[in-house]
Each structure stands twice: as structure tokens, then as C-alpha cells.
Amino acid sequence: MVIIRLPLAFARLCGQSILLALAQIWANKARSVLTTIGIVIGVASVATVVAVLTGLKKNVLSEFEAFGTNKMYILPQNPTEGPLRNAPWNVIRFTPEQFEGLRKHCPSVGDLTRTAFFDATVQAGDRSEEHVRVVGIDPSWHHIENRSVEIGRPFSVVDIQEARPVCLVPPDVRDKLRMNRDCTGQTIIVDHRTFTIVGVVEPRFESAMFGGQDKALEIQIPFTTAWKGREPWMMAIATCRTADVADEALAEVRFYLRRVRDLKPGDPDTFRVEVMQKYLQQFKAVAMAITVVAAGVVGISLLVGGVGIMNIMLVSVSERTREIGLRKAVGARPSAILLQFLVEAVMLCFFGGFMGVVVAGALTRLMVSIPNAHLDKVAIPLWAIGVSFGFAAAVGVFFGMFPAIKAARLDPIEALRHE
Fold it and tell me: Distance (Å, rounded) from C-alpha 327 to C-alpha 334?
């Protein structure tokens, strides 16, 4: 029975202390509001900063996912030092055969597509568009870029092997040239050469966070068709089998390309491999560092608010000295006095925390409504609200302890004499 009574008695004491604390706060409304301004500012700052960073992180992560977090971009590049620093472009550029054995010798690499680029004038009937980007691709390009064929068919093995003059067009090119919605079977002229449209491919992903991709029109043709007779600028896009093996895939590709390009030990690379996963990890690290630093800076407001809480609680102890003496005279224990003032300090901080969360909510709604700010996903996460109230409680306990101890240690006779 004693085991049951003790928790019940403690719960009753806590309930009474909470009611007394609320009554005291209500009796001194103006003073309580002014006292908790520091807590309000601190909690609102913490919650708002966390909301903004969380929203931006969600936006950036969604952009990365749309681009493909396991992509690898392989590009030729002149080294900044070494014997090949001033090498001619025909030595530095890629050739198709250099990638023929890459997947076989790089087990961490999933799909691979060679891509070739050149600009051309595209004409259909009496309509024409200049500076259209013509992209030579392999069939795996659709899976890597996550762009399927909406109407018609993708390139076949025969199209690739025989370098046929066939092409895919996105909806924007089709609309610019005023062609039928299903334009498969129609022909267009690309730099005086006739190409047959075999399909309509999904449009490119436009990034709002990173300012959007360039707005140049583009069409796709088989890589072998693009390379035949032109030998344009070429690069490759690959995927890692999983995001966890990005480092292994990077090392394997680098080792393979150095071997096929006959680079000697100590020679700088004549190519560059960019892994999207690396940039994603860097962003996450930077976002975490900013969150920690911002939370530390705005935490100063909580410290200032805590000092204000301690100050007002000391004033409250002085004002209620006679009350404390009366309570002790009728049998109140020091622990009950300590709990009462400690609970009052915590309730003040909770009040400030609640107001801070309300202010933060209003600020986040305001930021969401800002046009072109890319803050549409800004929202206060539940864990941030929990952390805010946790900070508020910790501040109340820490800064309310000294006034509570002072009240508990008052001598009842001296307290009754206090005017």
C-alpha cells in the first residue's frame, strides 16, 4: 500500500503545485509575459531555423532524387599539370571503344550510356528551330535518366547497330515544330539530313531549387548515328549499383579509364568523374553543421530568457516570503515549497515555449507564401516542437532551482516577521 500511496501523493502534490503556479502566473499576467519574452524568442528562433533547414533539405533531397543520387558523370578534361597539360583535344577526348569493357571490369557500376552532343537546325515542314541540341544516346539512357518513351518506341538494337537516321523528340520540340501529338512516322530534317521520328520521350526534369536546367531544345538520336561521320564531343553517364558503393564505383571507373587511356603512374587524370552521391553527402554534412551552429546561436536567447526567469522567481520569493512562512508554520515541508517554485518556473518556461512555437508557426506560414523562395516544404517537425519544450523545461529547472532552494530554506519565524 505504501508503494501505491507515495506516487499518488507525489502526483497530487505536483497537481496542486501546477494549479498554484498557474494561479500565480495569471495573477501577474503582464509580468509573466514580459519575463518569458526571452524564452519566446529563443524557442521561436530554434523552431523557425529548424523548419527552414528541414524544408530546404527536403527540397534539395527531392531535387537530387529526381536527378538520380546514384549517377556518375564521366567527362574528358585537360589536366592542369604534367606532360598532357597542353595536349590536343584529339588526345584528351573520349572514344566509344574506351567504354566497351567498363561494365565488365567495374562490378559496382550498374547501367552505362555513352552520350554525344552537337547543335543543329531542325526543320519540319515550314517550321524550323535553330541551335537544337542533338544528343546521341544508348538504349540504357532511358533508365539512367528516368525518361521513358510516352508515344512510339525507343531505339532498337538494329537502330544502334546500323546507325539508322531515327530520332526521339520531347513534347516541347514537337509543339515548337507544330507537329501532331502522335508524330511517330513523321520526318524532320537535322542539318540537311532526314530523320524519322520513332517516339516521343518524356520531357526533361526542370529543377526549381537549382534555377532550372538550360532551356535549350533537344532531340535524341542513336549514339552510333551521332558519332558516325561527326565524332562530336562525348561523355558517359553511369549509375552505381547502390548508393552505398558510390566510392567503390568511382575508384573502379578511375582505375579502368587510366588503364585504357594508357596513363602512367604519376600522370594526372585526363578525365573527371563526378558522383552525385558525393554532393548529396556534402550537402547533408553542411546542413547538419548549419543546424548545430544556428541552434547554438539562437540558444543564447534561451540563456537570456533563463536569467530573466531566475530573476523574476527571486522577486517572487521575496514578495511571498510571509506566505512561505505561513505554509511552513502549518506543516508544509521544504520539499513541497521547493517543488512549488520549481513548477512555477517550469510553467513559465512552458508558457514561453508554447508562445514561441505559435510565433514560429506564423513565421513558417509567412515564408511558405513568399513567391519564388522555394520554401514550399517548410514546416516545423514534431521533433523540433518536442526539443523546444524540452529546452524550455530544462531552462525552467536549471534557472528555477536557485530561487526554489532559497524559498525552501527560509526560516519560518523569520519569514513570518517579513513585511
Answer: 10
Instruction: Give the pLDDT mean for 367-387.
Output: 75
Q: DSSP letter for 244, please.
A: G
Q: Which burial class, exposed, middle or buried, applies to 376 when counting CB atoms under 10 A from its CB (0-12, 13-18, 19+)?
A: middle
Q: Are residues 245 and 116 in the same domain?
A: yes
Assess contact for 388 and 51: CB atoms under 8 A.
no
- Measured CA to CA, the distance from residue 394 to residue 322 in angstroms comes to 29
| 8 found inside a domain | no
The reply to whether 3 falls in a domain is: no
pTM metric for this prediction: 0.63
* Domain termination site, one of 275, 304, 324: 275
Alpha-carbon gap, residue 371 to 56, rounded angstroms: 15
pLDDT in tens, 285-315: 777 777 777 767 666 766 777 777 777 777 7
d(Cα 307, Cα 42) in Å, to the nearest integer? 13
**Backbone phi, psi, residue 147, to 5°:** -130, 100
pLDDT 10s digits, 362-372: 888 888 777 76
For residues 41-67, average pLDDT: 76
Amino acid identity of 113? T
- How far apart CA 169 and CA 202 sit, in angstroms, is 9
Contact 94, 236 (CB under 8 A): yes
